[in-house]
Amino acid sequence: MNSVSTASGIEAVEQHVPPKRRRLGTLLIRGATLLLCAIAAVQLLYAMGYLSWGFANWQPVFIAYILWSAAFCSGLVLRDGEAGWRAVFVLPALFFTLALVIFPTFFGFYIAFSDWNLQSAGGRSFNGLDNLRQLIGDPYFWNALGNMVFYVATVTVQYAIAFGLAMLLNAGIKAQKFFRVAFLLPFMLSPVAVSWMIGKSMLEYRFGPVTNLLRELGWSQPTLLTSPWLAKTTIALMDAWVWIPFMMIMILAGLQALPKDVQEAAKVDGATGWQGFWQITFPLMLPVSVTTIVLRVIFQLKLADIVINTTAGGPGGATDTISSYIFRVYKDRSNVGYGTMIAEVYLILIIIFVALLLKFTSRYMQRAV
């Protein structure tokens, strides 16, 4: 009864917002929104060349956005009362996302449909679908996309290794704390440092200790980074060495949270270790496993630093990822418009792929349960 009366009391307070105050709040929200849209439209049309007058840069639009955010919050408080105050606590995060995620994404689409080469004196100009046509006929893009399929597929092997290590650390072996820290060391290192330490030093063709050891074992030309498939496999191994600890620590946390009584009951019923794993441990670990794999796939789709520092996408684009190819388009060609088109198309492909992956995993978990 107390909770019902309290809720009805709050609703009554919210419903008794004075009409003039409601109208003022609505007017403030609508007026600020119309003003922001007008300023942004004028600047957009001026930047595209459809208007002969406008602002010198996008700074006035940013200032208008800040003022609109304050006016919108104030209008909600005036219009909705207590409910408006509750919304104000959520809106800063929403506005932050709009400013640093949504707006840059849509602005990227605007840049993607333009010819903007930093080495050209003409500056940026709208070129319609030319960048998209170039992308469709770009063999280096499709090669990098095919490489991404290979790199993402290696996540399954990484997951199997990480699960095995987590099971080992969860088994109460000697020096357990030492091995936990030792296995986590690669994850503490920057991928850039790993690429220089291993790719540029240990695997260097002439003086690297690994290549010298391979020569001593009878391999006359240990071309680990110059042979296409060997280079791609080497990149995948270095990347796995960095990220397997991340997967291991998440799976280990899930294993330690499993109910012990279920496992002990299976042992009493005569289940072997392998049967207990497949029939109890692995099904119970499905939520953690799915989360770990999805996060790892998302990180893998952004693979670039190890490739850029070790092989720069070579030999002949054999190790290229989409991110490293975008970097080379920006750095070597200074082609902002085309590089942004690649990035936006890749973003759409990632969204579709991750959405399908989440849908598939959710259905799989429902069937398993």
Describe this structure as you would to a colleague.
- The protein is an all-alpha fold.
- It has 2 domains: 18-112; 133-368, MetI-like fold (Orthogonal Bundle), CATH 1.10.3720.
- Helix content is 77%, strand content 1%.
- It contains 16 helices and 2 strands.
- The protein has helices spanning 2-15, 19-47, 59-80, 82-112, 130-136, 139-170, 176-188, 191-202, 209-216, 228-256, 260-268, 273-284, 286-300, 305-310, 322-333, 336-368, and strands at residues 114-115, 125-126.
- Strands 1-2 form a two-stranded antiparallel sheet.
- Residues 1-14 have low confidence and may be disordered.
Compact description:
The protein is mainly α and 369 residues long. The protein has helices at residues 2-15, 19-47, 59-80, 82-112, 130-136, 139-170, 176-188, 191-202, 209-216, 228-256, 260-268, 273-284, 286-300, 305-310, 322-333, 336-368; strands at 114-115, 125-126.
Q: Which structural class should the secondary elements be placed in?
A: mainly alpha
Rg, Å, rounded: 28 Å
Order of helices and strands: HHHHEEHHHHHHHHHHHH
The total count of strands amounts to 2
- Tally of discrete structural domains: 2
**General shape:** flat
> Could you give me the name of the CATH homologous superfamily of the largest domain?
MetI-like
Strand order of the largest sheet: 1-2
Question: What topology does this entry show?
Answer:
Layout lengths: L1 H14 L3 H29 L11 H22 L1 H31 L1 E2 L9 E2 L3 H7 L2 H32 L5 H13 L2 H12 L6 H8 L11 H29 L3 H9 L4 H12 L1 H15 L4 H6 L11 H12 L2 H33 L1
Antiparallel strand pairs: 1-2
